[in-house]
UniProtKB/TrEMBL annotation:
A biological process term (GO) from this entry: regulation of DNA-templated transcription
Metal-binding keyword on record: yes
Name of protein: Protein FAR1-RELATED SEQUENCE
GO molecular function, one term: zinc ion binding
């Protein structure tokens, strides 16, 4: 696995467009969860078709609702930067909140270290994040583009906080359109292309993606099974129903009273035991009274003599 780290560790995909959004099972698990709310295992073909149409109607209705929210209302801006106002006009609600987080971090957490003089309309900034120690980020900025060494825009499709800090210092009031993907915009097209932003869209081809993901590393790799693997449902007891718990509870031997062999109480709370104890206490009291009476009579007789 370590020798194959370049095939599965996300840090190695920094230079692959949009590869930061790829997860192995998140897409299929999300899809299975959505359709499981409408379908059942024993559904017939006609029932499956009707419920599938209901699921599609729900998705369409949700899309219309989100589109209406984006078109009818503007999200609340926190900072007084023009970049945030421009982002509120361009992006959908969910993406805007991510962009807003980057803009606020650019305002509060970024510290510019050095600035290279402008050459051919391009400036180079070196800045530091106060929350990350011993890390310097380099950002190249112009009026129409920004390129950061963290490669967040290449991985996730949204500009990073370092780029926003440099753009704000460079007095750019609107986000460069080369940093705005169609898929995040309110008026998104059916298919977003990255060619307009100077990025090749070959990664959208199925053949190229399949070749990239199935590329086997050179040499022989031997992977041994782990010594212990606790997967879901492996080595764990089956969850029992309430009925099974009740049946097992009835099968258990209940404690019986040693005096009367009754199962409701034990020896300490047995009525017979309480009667015996009361009789013993009464006998003890009578004995003490008789002894005390004899002592009193003896004293009286001595006083008379």
């Amino acid at each position: 696995m370590y020798d194959m780290r370049q095939s599965w560790i996300p840090a190695y995909f920094r230079y692959k467009p949009m590869y930061g959004l790829i997860r192995t099972t998140s897409r299929s698990e999300s899809e299975n969860y959505f359709f499981s709310q409408f379908h059942q295992c024993g559904s017939t073909l006609s029932e499956f078709y009707i419920r599938f149409e209901s699921a599609m109607d729900k998705q369409r209705n949700e899309t219309k609702r989100l589109n209406h929210e984006c078109a009818s209302a503007k999200p609340v801006t926190v900072s007084k930067l023009f970049l945030e106002d421009d982002a509120a006009e361009l992006y959908t609600r969910a993406i805007f909140y991510k962009i807003q987080e980057e803009i606020l971090a650019a305002r509060d957490d970024m510290r510019i270290q050095t600035i290279v003089p402008e050459v051919n309309g391009m400036k180079c900034y070196e800045m530091k994040d106060v929350k990350i120690k011993d890390k310097i980020f380099q950002v190249e900025v112009s009026k129409t583009h920004a390129n950061c060494s963290c490669k967040k825009f290449l991985m996730c499709g949204i500009p990073c906080r370092h780029a926003f800090c440099a753009l704000n210092h460079f007095e750019v009031v609107k986000i460069p359109r080369r940093l705005v993907l169609n898929r995040w915009m309110k008026n998104a097209e059916n298919k977003a292309s990255l060619k307009d932003f100077g990025i090749s869209d070959e990664h959208q081809n199925k053949e190229s993606v399949s070749a990239e993901l199935t590329n086997k590393p050179a040499g022989d790799i031997t992977i041994h099974p782990p010594l212990q693997c606790k997967n879901k449902g492996s080595g764990l007891k089956r969850l029992r129903s309430e009925r099974e718990k009740a049946v097992d509870k009835l099968k258990k031997m209940k404690r019986q009273c040693k005096l009367c062999n009754f199962v409701v109480h034990d020896k300490r709370t047995c009525p017979q035991n309480m009667k015996v104890a009361g009789a013993k206490v009464q006998a003890k009291v009578q004995t003490e009274l008789s002894v005390a009476g004899a002592e009193v009579e003896t004293e009286v007789a001595e006083m008379l003599h």
